[in-house]
Amino acid sequence: MGEAEAEFQRLVGGLDYPLYIVTVANGEERSGCVVGFASQCSIRPPRYWICISKKNHSFDVAMAAQTMVVHVPGPDQRALVSLFAEETGDEVDKFSRCDWELGPDGITPVLSDCDRWFAGRVLDHVDPGDHVSFLLDVTAASSGDMQGQLGFQEAKEMDPGHDA
Question: Which residues pair with 63 in a beta bridge?
Fold first, then answer.
């Protein structure tokens, strides 16, 4: 690792960006993971970028999915974040360990314990490196109880189910 990359890693390692739980389904399989690389990228129309690691179990399901549901967990939802961050769908059915219901598309799970979420139709994929970015066109949303959000620094010690 060069000096610029090392400095960059120290810089971003100290940022406290929000964490999201993303759920996807492709008609045959459902999956979910914690995502830290994400951003709103348009106001009108409402669009959002979500990046998923190519090593993640959710990646293959996401590549075939037409919709993603992006959940915004609060600080009191560490157990739910831990489930989707530390377990891997290669070994565990995460959805058997939490409450969920079908989302607006009738296929993609919405986590019942996370009342802040939005669903988006996948418009495009961009492959910038070890993650793939999914461009979402927001089609449904629930702002729920605005109680804060769980950030990267609060979950930094979690042991991911897959390396990034």
Answer: none
Judge whether 54 lies within some domain. Answer: yes
The answer to whether residue 7 sits within a structural domain is no
pTM above 0.85, yes or no: yes
In-domain check, residue 75: yes
Q: Which two tokens stand for residue 107?
A: 């296929």
Given the DSSP bridges, would you call strands 100-102 and 109-111 parallel, antiparallel or unpaired? Answer: antiparallel
What phi and psi, each to the nearest 5 degrees, are found at residue 19?
A: -105, 150
99-137 pLDDT, tens digit each: 999 999 999 999 999 999 999 999 999 999 999 999 999
Strand order in the sheet with 117-126: 30-35, 20-25, 67-71, 117-126, 131-142, 47-53, 38-42
Secondary-structure breakdown of the chain: helix, strand, coil percentages, each rounded to the nearest 5 = 25, 35, 40
The single residue listed with the structure tokens 């607006």 is 104
